[in-house]
Amino acid sequence: MNKDELLIWHEMDGAGDKSIVFIEEICREITQSYGVKFRFECMNITPYIDRLNHLEREVEKPDIIFIPQDLVSLEGAKLSEVPEVYKQYMSPKLWNSMKYKGVQRGVPYLQGNHAVIYYNKNYHEDPPTCFDEIMACHSGGVHKFAMDLKVAYWVVPFLYTANGDPLLNNQFQLQKDVPQTVVRQLRRLQERNSLYDCEAISTMLEEFLAGKIAAMINGEWLYEYLLEHMGEDLGVWELPRLDGQDMRGVSSSVGVAFPWNSLWGEKQEALDIFIRYMLSEDVQRRWLEEHRRFPVNPYVLEHFDRFCRDTNMQNSCRQMQKNYFLKNEDCVKVLWKTCDRMLETIRHS
């Protein structure tokens, strides 16, 4: 085992996931400056979670995994407890976002990870601020609005808008009529022949870029990819108002974690170099300025307007600030199951 070579596992969200490009660039810089070498293995989310849950089967285990905050609950990965020394690089809220059952299981390096509305300015002269405006779009046969009704995550803003935060006091609690309200809202959009149900990370991206979709709900992490292909035709806005209410979804962090107690093994020094470099002000600023993601560094965030004059990013930032911050307790699993059941009801109606 080479204590100066780190194996990284990274989940890929289709062609629109551009983060791996910058991560590889960061790793090359670390190699040049410190001599630490890296190898990468990338895979789609389903095999990623399965392999992490059954890491004992792997002949060679990763030293670093890149994960959204909720995956710190994967017991099979045996994630290292992370020391408080890295807490200085971010706010307590962001640091605590990768705690699970009171134990710090990861190091956040980005935040956001939230849904926004993307729109094509060829069909919308002004940002569509509510669903009525989206449905009134004269798109000439183009799909007015796209959303993925097969993945629970995209239903969450509807549920939170109707209910408020259902995860208060680490318990899942819904007002009595909320599931029926959400199902009714989505059915209404379908009945108006305006909601185009397609896969968020493949078909939706392809058809939006081809000009076949006027507006869509999708993840803020796709912005760099879409901007690269659409330029000034691309608009980003806060989630559309629904039944007179501002939509409030969830935001969360993205971080690195260390399976099979790797943080405390022979590679501890190399891993420390990697973590501190990822959290350095220069790298954090570049995430924002060059790759249009939201960093955790408080100084960069405090000077957001100076570092980022992109109006679309500012709109996305407003949605992030409006959202609830997702929790990591076991009650989150009930949230996903509840959303899955609502989608199942819609599919079979």
Please provide a written account of the structure.
- The protein is of the alpha/beta class.
- The chain has 14 helices and 14 strands.
- The strands form four sheets. Strands 1, 2, 3, 6, 12, 13 and 14 form a seven-stranded mixed beta sheet that branches. It has a three-stranded antiparallel beta sheet with strand order 10-7-11, covered by helices on one side.
- Helix 5 (156-163) packs across helix 6.
- The longest helix is centred in the last third of the chain and has 17 residues, at 331-347.
- The protein is globular and about 60 Å long.
The percent range for helix content is 25-40%
Distance between the termini: 56 Å
Number of strands: 14
> Nearest-angstrom radius of gyration?
20 Å
Largest sheet, described in full?
7 strands, mixed
Average residue-wise pLDDT = 93
**Helices and strands: which structural class?**
alpha/beta
Question: Segments where pLDDT lies below 50 for 5+ residues?
Answer: none
Short descriptors:
349 residues; alpha/beta; seven-stranded mixed beta sheet; three-stranded antiparallel beta sheet; 14 helices; 37% helix; globular
